[in-house]
Amino acid sequence: MEIIVADEDKSFPFYVWSGLLTPKHVERIGPAVWVFLWCIRRTTEEEGKEGIVNRGEPVKLTTIAKDLGYHLTRTCELVKRLRGAGYLRTKRTPRGLIIWVMKSKRRFKRIP
User: pTM for the whole thing?
Assistant: First the structure.
C-alpha cells in the first residue's frame, strides 16, 4: 500500500488537541513534534485509545524522512524519542514499522 502525501496544493486541515501545547508535552516531544504530527495526520482508524497509522500497513522511515525533509538518521532519532516518551508504539516488520499513536483522540464515524 502506498501512502498518499499531502503536498501544498492538496493541503487540508486536521485536528490536533490543544493539550499538546502545554510545557510538559513541549519538553517531552521537542523537535519530534513534526514526526508526531505526520503520524496523527495519517491515523486511519482507532483501536481503543490507540490510533493506527496507514491502516496498519508498515511505514518505511525513509518515507517519513522524505515527506518531512529530514535525514534518515534524524528521523530514526525522533521516532525513538516519541516511543520513549510514550507517544508512539511501533512494531518492526521486514517492510517497515507498524505505528500506533497513543491517545490519538481522532474521531472516526463508524459505518454499520
Answer: 0.82
Q: Report whether 10 contacts 41 (CB < 8 A).
A: no
Q: The cell 496544493 sits on which residue?
A: 9
12, three cell numbers: 487540508
Instruction: Give exposure, 10-48, as e/b (b: 16+ Cβ within 10 Å).
Output: eeeeeeeeeebeeeebeebbeebbbbbebbbbbbeebee
Q: Which long-range contacts (CB under 8 A, 24 or more apart) does 80-84 make?
A: 81/29, 81/30, 81/32, 82/29, 82/32, 82/35, 82/36, 82/39
Q: Are 106 and 46 in contact (CB under 8 A)?
A: yes
Question: Which cell is 64 given?
Answer: 517519513
Q: What is d(CA 11, CA 9) in angstroms, rounded to the nearest whole number?
A: 6
pLDDT tens digits, one per residue of 15-55: 777 888 899 999 999 999 999 999 999 998 888 889 999 99
